[in-house]
Amino acid sequence: MERITVYELESMYRDSFRITGFRFGEGEKTMCIVGSMRGNEVQQLYCCSQLVNRLKSLEARGHIAEGRSITVIPCVNPYSMNIGKRFWPTDNSDINRMFPGYDLGETTQRIADGLFREISDYRYGVQFASYHTPGRFTPHVRMMRTGFESVEDAKSFGLPYVLIVDPVPFDSGTLNYNWQIWETKAFSLYTPETTRIDRISATRVINSVTRFLTRIGAITYHGRAGHQSDVIEEDHLISIQTPEAGIFEPMTEVEAQVSEGDLIARVLDPYEGDVRCEIRAVCDGVVFFRHSDPLVYADTVVCRLIPLGEFKPLRG
Amino acid sequence: MIQDVVSLRLPVDEDLRIVKNRIAPEGSTEGMKRICIVTGTHGDELEGQLVCFELNRFIQANIGHLKGIVDIYPALNPLGIDSITRGVPGFDLDMNRTFPGNLQGSMPEYIAAKIFEDIRGADVCIDIHASNIFLREIPQVRINELTAEELVPLAKHLNVDFIWVHSAATVLESTLAYSLNMAGTRTLVAEMGVGMRLTREYGTQLSMGILALMAHLGIWDGSVPEVREPIVSVDGKVEFINAAKGGIFVSHIEHWKDVRKGEHLGDIVSPLTGEILSEILSPCDGLVFTLREYPVVDEGSLIARILRM
């Protein structure tokens, strides 16, 4: 393993800003894995740290394939992580909206440029990602439809679901989108948590990456086979909104299978404790996303279901 | 008349209300033109507050001259304004990247959809922004090159100093202005001043410009002051100056002034060592229309924009 400084920026009063990477093997740039891009993505950092740990062990036992290299970058934004802020400390900009970056531009554009120059020519790119709305997700692979997405490759992770989304304009600055534009096959991997560590889901995601690396011949490591992934279009997910605001009391977890009419959550009056409304499944399905904050606004999505039965998703 | 644009319940004993003030002549308004004045999308931009206040006061005091409908939306992001938060508190979303919104989406997307529907169909919309807390801007209108042909003639009535026709960027397709323009509602983005502050002269300047535009549209028949002739420019004539080092920026020039090529614009200094870390010289003859206001800079922070002359 080689520890490398991918990008460095001097600061007036803080230690230098550094993006650190860990490179395993030599030769073809086979896969790059990027962890936390925002300062609150602790789970994504944890996943990467455990992946580095496992790859170190595999390398020591000679399981990295000849002529292949794998790079893991656990944290793109240590400055924000060290002060508990999600976005860039001074101007609050999001590095993951700045790709492909600009070397003469603003600070986060320069960081994105410095990172992207190092990682834009890998065959495969993986990002451990989080979402802008607070909630828990079923572990899944998310891919943007850019014309370069590869569903067959995505299924090789062996996670329960592969979700295909149509990019919206503000996605055009993300790492995933730009990787694909520059012909790296890019995948975002989601686990239920962001700000807290969930060891079980982290292990699932790490297993999914080593499974993928085995299937493409980058390592020799025979873990568990994983799932036969269902491929879902984002448009096919069924969104359920709450008509009421208040205290959110979930009655199901992500990945749970529910029948039409089942109770998914309740919204309680925050002063008197009465049930203001019950949120029920509108069809048979699997809970793909569930709101996670203890408080909830009215007219906002609290659950997204993968419909089953006549709406059964395509098996890719 | 104060009207709700969207109202929804917050978790604990509070309703979020986004409101507008509709000012119209007495009697039927059928067939009348409508102009929308919107601001407060970013909670840290306050320059538009003064414009809304002055327009409200002036129009109501001279209501006999009003020949159309004026809708004033002073706070599209009231939670952000109240908490000095640029985006929507509780979400990692810039509200001006969520338009045209989604009624089936998260709270900010739902609100955006309601706002979009309320404004859509107006004859003109003026979306007023300040700069952020880092930069000071002269009063200007920014126009996407895709809509320049139709919007530049309108923008010339707004009494601004500068019209910047910028290139089309995919990421800007989620803004209120882009979404409304694509839906056929002509929308001009005015930008001026600095974040978290009011600049009184700029507020008055733009308010007069909006009255002039209303007169041009036939919504106002009172007298209006003569508007200034703006400089109209495209991207290629704008020089960006970014910090070469992190440190404290000390300006040696004034905002909206002529500079000569090689002129000393300022320094980035180290209070720790007393060194000048970077001396900033003008790359061209021109006008400084954007100038750093907040002294702390990282490498790459924008120091100034100069319009090449």
Strand line-up of the largest beta sheet of chain A: 1-2-4-3-5-9-7-8-10
Protein chains sharing the most extensive interface: A-B, 44 and 39 residues
CATH topology of the largest domain in chain A: Aminopeptidase
Count of runs of 4 or more consecutive helical residues of chain A: 6
Quaternary state of the chains: heterodimer
Give the CATH class of the largest domain in chain B.
Answer: Alpha Beta
Number of helices of chain B: 6
**Which term fits the overall shape of chain B?**
globular
Secondary structure category of chain B = alpha/beta
Tell me about the largest β-sheet of chain A: 9 strands, mixed
How widely separated are the two ends of chain B?
47 Å
> Could you say which structural class the secondary elements and strand pairing of chain A correspond to?
alpha/beta
Task: Provide the low-confidence segments of chain A as ranges.
Answer: none
Could you name the key traits of this structure?
heterodimer; A: 316 residues; alpha/beta; Aminopeptidase; OB fold (Dihydrolipoamide Acetyltransferase, E2P); nine-stranded mixed sheet; 6 helices; 18 strands; 21% helix; B: 309 residues; 2 domains; 13-stranded mixed sheet; four-stranded antiparallel sheet; 17 strands; 22% helix; globular
How would you describe this protein?
The complex is a heterodimer of chains A (316) and B (309). Chain A is an alpha/beta fold. Chain A folds into 2 domains: 2-232, Zn peptidases (Aminopeptidase, 3-Layer(aba) Sandwich), CATH 3.40.630.10; 237-311, Beta Barrel (OB fold (Dihydrolipoamide Acetyltransferase, E2P)). Chain A is 21% helix and 32% strand. Chain A is built from 6 helices and 18 strands. Chain A has a 9-stranded mixed beta sheet with strand order 1-2-4-3-5-9-7-8-10, sandwiched between helices. In chain A, strands 6, 11, 13, 16 and 18 form a 5-stranded antiparallel beta sheet that branches. In chain A, helix 1 (42-60) links the parallel strand 3 (28-36) and strand 4. In chain A, helix 1 (42-60) crosses helix 6 (199-215). The longest helix of chain A has 19 residues, at 42-60. The radius of gyration of chain A is 20 Å and the shape is globular. Chain A starts with a strand and ends in a 9-residue tail after the last strand. The model of chain A has no long low-confidence stretch (mean pLDDT 93). Chain B is α/β, with parallel strands linked by helices and 309 residues long. Chain B folds into 2 domains: 2-229, 3-Layer(aba) Sandwich (Aminopeptidase); 236-308, RNA polymerase II/Efflux pump adaptor protein, barrel-sandwich hybrid domain (OB fold (Dihydrolipoamide Acetyltransferase, E2P)), CATH 2.40.50.100. Chain B contains 6 helices and 17 strands. In chain B, the strands form 2 sheets. In chain B, strands 1, 2, 3, 4, 5, 6, 7, 8, 9, 10, 12, 15 and 17 form a 13-stranded mixed beta sheet that branches. Chain B has a 4-stranded antiparallel beta sheet with strand order 14-13-11-16, with no helix packed on it. In chain B, helix 1 (47-61) crosses helix 6 (200-217). Chain B is globular and about 65 Å long. The mean pLDDT of chain B is 95. Classes of the chains: A alpha/beta (316), B alpha/beta (309). The A-B interface holds A 9-13, 38, 86-87, 90-92, 94, 97, 104-110, 132-134, 168-170, 172-173, 239, 241, 244-247, 270-271, 293, 295-301 and B 8-13, 16, 86, 90-93, 97, 104-107, 110, 132, 134, 170-174, 240, 242, 245-248, 270, 272, 296, 298-302.
